[in-house]
Structure formats: structure tokens, C-alpha cells
Amino acid sequence: MEIHITDYVGERIRAIRKSKNYTQEQLGEKVGLPQPYIGGIERGERNISLETLERILEALETSPDEFFRFYNDKYFSEDERTRERILDSLSELLSKRSVYDIQMIQQLAHNVLATIDSHKEKK
User: What is the pLDDT of residue 115?
Assistant: First the structure.
């Protein structure tokens, strides 16, 4: 299924908003837009300006490159959408931590994944 950019923008805004535990109303207040308008954006019904997108990205504390990182593919499976939401959530968790904490978590993740991979090889 091909996804249009308005749908992609809406899905990404919704995923990032939810990962930050904002309601549509809270996001709307941050950017000066009413909740129904935010809902229309998230459903892909609104063709928003780049200025509005920029304000939303600032409110969500998300860079354009982070926002569009999944736009390389025009086709999204449910697994890819779930993966996207989980990565957004992890990114949000890590963004509030110190560099030291992030490095520790990175090392732990590396060790866990190495263990998983070694068990897969033994099978």
C-alpha cells in the first residue's frame, strides 16, 4: 500500500505525540492550533504548510531528519509501524538521560544482542 506524504506526516506526528504522552489538545496548545485541526493532520486530511510542520516539530522536540527517517520506503507493514513506535519511545526515554547513562545502556544492549545472536547460531 502506497502512503502519501500527508498520511506519513500525520502518522509520524501521532506516533511521536503519543510517545511523549501528549494529547492532541496539549500539542495543539503548544503550537497554537485547535485539537480538531491536529486530529485532521494526524488523519492525513490536512495539507499543512512547512511553517506549521516546523512549529509541530519544535513542540515535539523532533528534528526534520528524525521525523522523516522512515520515509525512504513508500510501503509500510504493520511490523514496520510498530517498530517505528517502539524506536520513538526508546529515543524519548534516552533523550532525557546523560551521555554516561546512554553509553551504559548502549553497552548493555550490545551485550544482550550478542547473547541473542550467539544463541541463534547454536540452533
Answer: 93
